[in-house]
Amino acid sequence: MKKKIAVLVMSYGTPESMDQIEAYYTHIRRGRPPSAEELQELTERYETIVGGVFPLREHTNKQVAELQRALDSLDDGCEYVCFQGLKHASPFIEDGVQRIADASIHEAVGVVLAPHYSVMSVGSYIQRAAEKAEGLGIRMRFVKSYHTRPELIEAYTERISESLEQFEGGKTGVHVLFTAHSLPERILEMNDPYVDQLLMTSRLIADHAGISRWQFAWQSAGRTADPWLGPDILDVMTDLQKQGVKEILACPIGFVSDHLEILYDLDIEAKQHAAKLGIHFERVRSLNQDPQYIKLLRDLVVELKDRPPGSYEM
């Protein structure tokens, strides 16, 4: 009989319908309901981008389905079964681990749909899954990060190359902004690798794509009393305009799917800001179900399945 390996695919999560937005937002706020104004603003943003379809959930479902197909095609003596675990929506991470136990599978690999590690992001996913798995007697290995993998670099390089065709200046005239979700500045005091990993990915992509005019910018910072990592992409765009830059290409390497931070924060908010500045602004396509990305996820699972339980930078 084939050895059964569970694959827990973890992601941030999103509502599945408009009537779930308040519960979703409340969970993000650790049980504190949003104010009427905050709820209205988030609802309006979703109404602007989704048209009744919530893209992150749809893309996550498709990514898991494609990963399952990729694993099914292997002939390595193992049977892989994919489960989902979401941070802020059902099925929650703990639900996914429970379903693994209910399927009587005792060996598992956990991977987050985010290439870069921070204790506040990927680290929290792993902690929740590991604690639940330990209580259920499931041996789990986790992919900690995969920010330098060739498939990831190549996929973004291809997207930059195709996007440059939309600009008159081509490779020499466009300024590339690599972006990721900002986090509270206090991670800098924790020797957190998040910033360094993002900069490393940016350099690898820029080198591979032959891009010399680039820099890193943050986006989608939370509205809390704590300071968040900056500079924000909108501020960077304003500074670049003052320097005479007329063409900007955003490459959001911190995200692997189309969702609110892509479809609103970049495609609407950043694009509107660029128009006011007289800048031609575009962004690269998201990975979504890109075959190279699915192959990368498949390879990560296979490479980890026989390692001792724990977390691994890949």
Automatic annotation (TrEMBL):
GO-annotated biological processes: heme biosynthetic process
Instruction: Please give an example of a GO cellular component term from this record.
Output: cytoplasm
- This entry's Enzyme Commission designation comes to 4.99.1.9
| Pathway named in the protein's UniProt entry | Porphyrin-containing compound metabolism; protoheme biosynthesis
Q: Which UniProt keywords apply?
A: Cytoplasm, Heme biosynthesis, Iron, Lyase, Metal-binding, Porphyrin biosynthesis
Quote the Pfam families the UniProt record gives: Ferrochelatase
Q: Which InterPro entries match?
A: Ferrochelatase, Ferrochelatase_AS, Ferrochelatase_C, Ferrochelatase_N
A GO term, aspect molecular function: metal ion binding
Chief location bin: cytoplasm
Annotated residues for binding of Fe(2+): H181, E261
Q: What class of enzyme is it?
A: lyase
Reactions it catalyzes: Fe-coproporphyrin III + 2 H(+) = coproporphyrin III + Fe(2+)
Please list the residues that bind Fe-coproporphyrin III. Answer: Y12, R29, R45, Y46, Y125
Q: Where in the cell is it found?
A: Cytoplasm
What does this gene product do?
A: Involved in coproporphyrin-dependent heme b biosynthesis. Catalyzes the insertion of ferrous iron into coproporphyrin III to form Fe-coproporphyrin III.
- Give the family this protein belongs to, as stated in its UniProt record: Belongs to the ferrochelatase family.
What is the name of this protein? Coproporphyrin III ferrochelatase
Tell me what organism the protein belongs to. Answer: Insulibacter thermoxylanivorax
